[in-house]
Amino acid sequence: MELQEPEPSTVFYKYPKFKYYGWETIYVEHQKQYLKLIDKYPDVNRLYLLMYLDFYKFDLVLTDLRMAKQYHKEDEEELQIIDVLKKSLKKADPVFLELAGEWFKHESPNALKEFIESILTGKKSKYPKLSTYNDNIETLNLLKSLTINFETTQFLKICPDPMDYILKAKTHLCYKFNGDKLTYLYDKFYRLPVPLIQAEFFVKHFHLLETVDALEDMMLDEEKYPESSENARSQLASGMMIYLSGMDDIDLLKEIAFVENKEAVEYHMSTEASMRLIELEEAKMANLIYICECCYETELLISEVYCCPKGHSFCLKCIETIVESQVTLKKLEIKCLTECTENLNLEMIKNIVNDKLCERIVSLEQTKEIDAANIENLESCTFCNFVASVPQDLKVFTCLNPKCGKELCRSCKKENHLPLSCYENIQTPEVVIRTRIENKMSEVLIRNCPVCKNRFLKDSGCNKIVCPCGTSICYICKKIITPIYEHFYHNRIMPNKCPLFTDENVVHVAVVEAAARLIIDEMRVTNPNLLIRVNMNKLLPKIKPPQPRRRGDEISVSIDNEVIAKILGENVQKINSLKDMRTLESTSNQ
């Protein structure tokens, strides 16, 4: 897949999907993916990068490989326009403004002026906000700390007891298939055959660490699984590959981070444990050992306890637990955990608890101070509880919390929707279409037994469903099946048969999207005006793009259209003819 090298920057202006603010739609729906590459190529022309990211169907690995060859940078004129936008629209997402600056370089000066005025006056109320950008950057920083910027000490702050975390993952996630784990295993063990990796993953009940240990033992057999140039691993480091792969599940990334850095983490933990033992022996000799008077843990160092004004000692874990429960109840006077009448020192507690809990304490303190002041016309942000006094006739409340910055309608407490009324905002075309899609979603996902009419939804296992009444039903085509297993195929696709095993996450998303496309095709005929300027990305379910493979043929993560047609009860030709609804281009050609 190779694009012709773009010539001047006008090629970005001519990219078909960028028309009618299509560039904004694409950016909003793929913000986190886009920001990952902006972080790696900070001086890249924003529209240039967005065009290639869209061309490669938001595959970050392929886009990164393309950018590594050559990319266009922002020019001086674009930077001047961007500077004007950032000074004028301080509450907007800065990357959104950079895209806008490059776009309006090719528009008239009046178009830029109208764009700025439309945001300042509230005419354009829905645009990427600075608060959302900050949230995304915070998430990406966490992702980087678990992948490309991994540091053992930082990891242990995020995951203080990784072995306990892995054991809990084994207990709670056992027997639950995870496609991202399998993708990681394919990339890590590139010399091993795919069927072998899959088999070991199933044998270990989808437990990642145990599967990795077993596969690493197999990799030691150099004669059976030799290193070869054909199977050589990508030049991208494994951490970068994981970061760009689209895996955004923090819990999974913690598990992978531990697997990738197990030796370093265990060495650091053993070193810390040895140093603590030395400190503990010295403390015993000096008679400076403490006991938690809540959980009764013994042999605590002075750095591991907090004492109330009367000297009652508690471990930091117990302190954090009681403080969190009291703050949740909106209480700041925290009594000693014994029958002592003393309050715990709140300022000292702020230095003990984690950062998020400390922020909640500070926020609660401010709220109580404002309540005590009995100030009129107080308004609170529904997203972060920031409180401020605003004029009574003001319709929109702007949160001044730098980490939030949301604009809220004071009437319905939702995000600013002016010039639409609250009722009009509820009845937007997106809501009307989404309601139809959600109704169709229930219809296509829930099964009814043809005998007793019992309703059920499958979330795991094979596609042979046995109703409590004893009837065997195929989950795909919904027919009563007998003899049972002759109805299905397993390892290879067979005509006129249904698959015995499918990944429910993929099946459900694919079927719902196909159902949504059918509804939209119908509405193009029955009510085309409703579809004008509707953002399809907000209506359709999220789909992770297939991960790039470097191993040749293997089982596809996509679902065959024949399977989708059977579930929907539609003709397969009709499903084959459906167009991609995820682009502005496909929805604007009514």
Automatic annotation (TrEMBL):
Coiled-coil spans in chain: none
PROSITE patterns: TRIAD
Record-annotated RING-type domain positions: 288-494
GO-annotated molecular function: transferase activity; zinc ion binding
InterPro entries per the UniProt record, alphabetical: BRcat_RBR_RNF216 (IPR047545), LUBAC_E3_Ligases (IPR051628), Rcat_RBR_RNF216 (IPR047546), TRIAD_supradom (IPR044066)
Sequence intervals crossing the membrane: none
Keyword Membrane in record: no
Span of the signal peptide: none
Domain of life where this protein originates: Eukaryota
Pathway membership: Protein modification; protein ubiquitination
Keyword Cell membrane (UniProt): no
Keyword terms: Metal-binding, Repeat, Transferase, Ubl conjugation pathway, Zinc, Zinc-finger
One Pfam family this sequence matches: Rcat_RNF216
PANTHER family: E3 UBIQUITIN-PROTEIN LIGASE RNF216, UBIQUITIN CONJUGATING ENZYME 7 INTERACTING PROTEIN-RELATED
This protein's name: Zinc finger, RING/FYVE/PHD-type
Originating organism: Cinara cedri
